[in-house]
Records
---
Amino acid sequence: MKTEKDIKDLVSRMTLEEKAGLCSGLDFWRTKEAERLGIPSVKVSDGPHGLRKQDEAADHLGINESIKAVCFPAGCATASSFDRELVRELGETIGEECQAEDVSTILGPAMNIKRSPLCGRNFEYYSEDPFVSSEMAGAFVNGVQSKNVGTSPKHFMANNQEYHRMTSSSEMDERTMREIYLASFEGMVKKEKPWTIMNSYNKLNGTYLCENKEMLTDVLRNEWGFDGYVMTDWGAMDDRVESLKAGCNLEMPGSGGGTDREIVEAVKNGTLDEAVLDRSCEEFLNIVFRYVENRDETAVFHHEKDHETARRIEEECMVLLKNEDQILPFPADKKVAFIGKYAEEPRYQGGGSSHINSFKVESALDAAGFLENVKKENIVYAKGFDDAEDKADEKLVKEAVEAAAAADAAVIFAGLPDNFESEGYDRKHLKMPECQNALIEAVAAVQPDTVVVLHNGAPVEMPWIGKVKAVLEAYLGGQAVGGAVVNILYGNSSPSGRLAETFPLRLQDTPCYLNYGGEHDHSVYSEGVFVGYRYYTSKEMEVLFPFGHGLSYTSFAYDNLKTDRKELKESETLTVSVDVTNTGARAGKEVVQLYVAPKGGTVIRPVRELRAFDKIALEPGETKTVTFTLDKRAWAYWSTEIHDWHVESGEYEIQIAKNAQEILLSEPVRVESETVIPKVFTLNSTIGEIMADPKGKAVFEQAVGAMSGGSAQEMKDSQEGNGVINSEMMAAMMEAMPLRQLISFVPGVTKEALAPLLEALNM
Ligand code: BGC
């Protein structure tokens, strides 16, 4: 195995041209080799929910064929599992496939924050919540890398829209960046050390990510300890020399040597320090050799086995959104009409670079034929709609209505067609095709026991929600989605997915409705940290389904919420435990969600934020105690005064919740800050600010007393005496009064007299 020193030696033996050559790809998917020095070329492939290995006719839009592979559920689905172990297993499986196909790095996970449900690529991303996103991505990275294959978490960062993704600048303040958009990557990078990172196409506050030194070097490497290499998204290179200085190691795909020559030229003319190039090559080669030296030649791509894994995973991901009268699960002998094209041809993946050439696809109709407890003779099928164009086909609707009326129940397999959501463009609305909405209405009018199964990558509006009994969100569930859906419909397993994103009632309700997409290539994130449920809960808005929501075929009771202390310092940890019991008659899994709600404080914050979660399996009647450990970050916000995480002293509530809107149990704790934010008082500091500071208060009270000989009190008394202002009003006014105003309002106070006070305050 090559040591750090070996790699340094190797780089020292390379010519300038050879080193510059390592800074860009050989072609679409491969890195360059240097035969003379034993440096091999390695291959990377998309990602993220399966292998899109292209041998010929390469492209980054999923147009040309790749090898036959297995399409697993997309990120929108896997995040809903809230199950780290499951996502880790997915990573292991894909890692094994990569070894079998000699792919050094899988281009994923895709982990941008779902700022708006309109983003065309949300189906690949995990969540509107950075903690969920980071935890799920971390599990995936851990799984893949355990097979000695690299990952490339993407797209770093703030790539939250497809509209003008190659030129648009995502513009946000420092706190929003830290608490939401960087936080999505932070935990994953720190804990799992991804081998590579893919920088995004867009700009961040005006600077292309490929040449953003603050992001690629200061934050990623220096703060978070990233030690792999950064590659560009495909074609995201802007200025090669500047980006090398900023910390971008590899330009993908290759550029025919043009940018390599720019690097050589820059070293020769002194605008680029050769040491920067050397370091970049070392970082890159470390990873190349990590793969090559740990190559597993025995690995096999088990298509059939992985297909089964894809089905099992999807079963754990689907979210049962509604289940009136416990209509689901169906007994095996129920006569059910399967309606809708997706029962036969499921929509199970999204368009673009993640598009997998599935070796087979399992529809719900196929699965009904081979699952043991489903009797095929009890199922009839009517196509209902064809999504080639959004137009109701009266003949298809009539057949569907007749089939539904003649059956005991109807299941409509609906959702979004391919062209409604894809990489490369955003959605314009949250509607399903009109022909599908009309079909659901028509079927529900004749069949009271109507169930809708949704195949979509992002939230949709459901104008028919009150007319159907149940809704099962299958998301884009991978090539085995049909089997997974039927297993849930007929109760072979109990649904256990929870929404990792809010389903709003309508597009106009979404936090960035007025700004999403931006103008003239500036996309201003003016909703700040109020993304997703942070916004809806803080505004107490009604939504269609809240973040964290999901039903089960069994029921759970929560009890005995305990914290190991009532008060703690910010550097101490808090242990929280809660008992969860399966009170129903079947086995099931529950996602235990812990939110923290600050009570008071001087900073504008969301009413609650998810700080911990766990998924547990419970047999009927079984109780488990779930334990969480919270550290400083549970209470902290990003302070722009100290450019660091900061905890305000005060009360915080630990909330155990069914979802972001439904709190089941809560317990207060008091947290003491141990970090003093240095304050500089000026004549414009308000009395409120001074009095809020313990030292300031003491100095101020003493000084004012001495200066005015009680005249401040006199002024207060006289104002109150005239009956215009009561003491509360007075206190409020004083609170907001800058120090300098004492000169105008307190007899005897002069600017000169305030000078020693300021000095004492700032001592
Ligand atoms: C996508 C990346 C992908 C790359 C290579 C780009 O268009 O944004 O996610 O990995 O193409 O296909």
---
Amino acid sequence: MNERILELFQAQPEVYVSGEELSRRLGCSRTAIWKHIRELREAGYEFEASPRKGYRLLKKPAKLSAAELLSGLATQTMGHKLHIYDEVDSTQLVAHALIAQGASEGTLVLAESQTAGRGRMGRKWHSPPGKGIWMSLVLKPLIPVYFMPQLTLLTAVALCRSIQQVCGADIGIKWPNDLLIGGKKVSGILLESSGEDERLKYVIAGIGISANLLAADYPEELRGIATSLAIETGAEVRREKLIQAFLLEFEELYRLYHEKGFAPIKLLWEALSVSLHRPIRTTTGQGVIEGMAEAIDDSGALIVLTPSGERINVYSGDVEHA
Ligand code: BTN
């Protein structure tokens, strides 16, 4: 009900809506409306209440709001089961625990801050409070374990396209799944899974987006390599809008992937990649590989053409652009 109330106010911002109209449009009593407005106020929404004109929405909360997120969510499944926390160790760990209790596909875990945010390759992920989007999405894809890298690339495509739409940022994907603006990282993806006999039981897509961090929010060692959407575009990001756009984009690509396989996702990834057709350097289990990033193969591996003419498929690791 709180979501429907917010939808009404957001459809006509700045306008007073009377208690009578609210109760008529939502089919409930004036007392029920009053109770819901009180709940929204407690969640940080500010309303002006005029005895003759009704209610007017003045301010939305700075904290992530479940009601607002759900009120504009156009997906069928992704994000409808929502868990929002002020502080967790890692949203990945919370998602693992929720799955153990039966959480279904599309369940989304969000936190204002993480004390032990996890990055790829055992690194830490800087997750200060209130400014980023730190989230984990539960997936139960019908694919074998060895297709996981494809899902990672799909997630990067969905994220890149939603950031382009909502923030108008000139953003690209560095293989496999770092999102960069002007060579600096704004977002990272970590997929964790559990499987049995080559079949995936579940995947948790962990996504970190540095949305509204300022330069002062980064520790010294990250300043030269990381940036935020707000720093790069000069505008504050409405986090709920970006999450909604990502979930919709992800759901559509995920459906396409299940229907048509990896080929269309691969094309989209290639179009957004800033790694392809560039000299790169990567450290893998087999040592350092240098060469031209030529393409990705059907499993999502990066094909590197070395100066000696050898083609090497790189399955995991970090890439440095030369
Ligand atoms: C990387 O680029 O190294 C991946 C970073 C992934 C960070 C996100 S933030 C939400 C989710 N919870 C975590 O602990 N990690 C992921």
